[in-house]
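Bench notes, bay 3.
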Amino acid sequence: MHGTITPPRQAWYRVLYIQVLIAIVLGVVLGWAAPETAKSMKWLGDAFIALIKMMIAPVIFCTIVHGIASMGDLKKVGRVGLKALIYFEVVSTLALLVGVLVAEVVKPGAGFGANVATLDPKAVATYTAAAQKDSVVQHILGLIPKNFLDAFVGGDLLQVLVVSILTGVVISGLGERAAPVNAVIDTMGKIFFGIIAIVVKLAPLGAFGAMAFTIGQYGLASLGNLLGLVATFYMTSLLFVLVGLGTIAWLNGFSILRFLVYIKDELLIVLGTSSSETVLPQMMQKMEGLGASKPVVGLVIPTGYSFNLDGTNIYMTLATLFLAQAVGADLSFGQYATIIAVAMLTSKGASGVTGAGFITLAATLAAIPNSPVPVAAMTLVLGIDKFMSECRALTNLVGNGVATVVVSNWEGELDRTKLAAAMARPVAVGDRVEAQPLENAI
């Protein structure tokens, strides 16, 4: 009788998520024990993020173009895109409302007693300057690169999406004549994923440097008076993931807890770097390993990085109401509605880049009519934004992963066998997906 052959397990110290976890702990210890030395480690985190980001545009281009061209039926492309956008808007609105509800129930800013007259607008001048450029017209114009290659040079995710979709549609329309081009693009994609597989081995160093700098720069004791807001945001995001996304996952046949275990490596890398962009290629591979179809993954994951930012949405409404409470301002029903409507717009395009959520918060505050909360009030949360950024990125990552499985299920293209295997043993399956040859993982 032949039994199932179990792949040999890696030594614990060679498992990526354990290495990253150890690196994060070491970074915190160094930041606490030797702040100045820790701050000098910042370049390690910056270098790792830069290495990953240099591959994001070509990976997205190859994946989307090949995915659309392989579908063949452009009506299917439109159908998948429409389903994804509907899902994004519904769940994003839910995230905004959760932020409002928790802020009103917990009231984290009540009793803060901040004096508006003493707030220094210069501290957030960089963010407000960026926010002033944030409008509907600027969003539309920002979608269009100066030329085809400029989208890749600038690294603007939305511009890369536009160029990729247009290219994929044209290649699909050319049919068999463009088949060799599609094959070349698919091969290029595998090459880029191979580079990512090499770079990601440096994740522990990146996580160590980023965490050491954060603790060394901002400290722990100095943030005590704002820990209430940080704790409220983390608990709110956790509630949203476990209850909100957990319910969605259950309705689509999988466990949110097992899903979190399955993407443990990616979650820890994001925790260390505060940027969900650092794991975009790996998430695409993981979602295919979970049973989502390759074309759906190629469309939903990159699009979700700009249009499905659950963590950022929770943060914007929660932080806005915190600031209102901190300065003793009362918001009308109309201003509440405006906050939600404006946040829906400003959050788009705030992809996994560290600090993008803070800029969108400035844009939201600036857009509230007759707002009793000045943009300068953002100085109250400036010191803790780095810690909030990590939670935003983590929640965004989980939300996009769940969205990919859901849309694939709606399309009837979810491999239930793979999904069941991953949910039954998420650690073992996850490790095998990571360790398998690249050509089998894509």
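Next record in the batch:
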Amino acid sequence: METTVYSTAGQELRKMNLDDAVFGLEVNQDLLWYAINNELANKRLGTACTKDRGEVHGSNAKPYKQKGTGRARRGDKKSPLLVGGGTVFGPKPRDFSYKMPKMAKRLAVKTALSLKANTGTLKVIEDFSVEDGKTKKLFGILQNFGAGERTVIVLNGDENGRDRVNMLKRAGRNIPWLSFLSATRLRVHDLFYGRRVFLLETAAKEICEFYAAHKNRRNTGLGVKA
């Protein structure tokens, strides 16, 4: 598919071809749901912990005699029925993460990119940098595209331009609705929920080269073939 490359001032510069195998796929909602839930599950800490009656600090002595008091029978003060006692079936530390098939994960990324390209919320911008790392300059560039909602900027993953990438991230860390992604480490959750997705020109080329080179050769098991 053909798209337009914009300048930082919001003007059209030239045309660019994007690989249909990456940006022209049919949207699979089930696959997007599966990938987003996988990413959210992998981010969960799973550190919630409660103490049962065997872990609560307290005496094991019987608080009062078994019979003759007219009260309920108590074995110790750590009973879940008493204030300060243990918790019944409370949460324990656990790992919520699980692995997603590699081909399905790549196909989900391509599906998210195709969705944004088809809806017109994805734009390719010429490579730019913020040498001084000032938020005001980056905010001015984003305003040229009417940004003010949840926005994602996809940067190239080249290590040679690491200083430029770091300055861009420094300039954008004070903008609450802005997030950055690397072309080699895309997240379906951020792409799907981003109201605007901006690809740097080199990042767009890098995405086309990487994901077009890893075409799925068999069914992903989720009802879609790439």
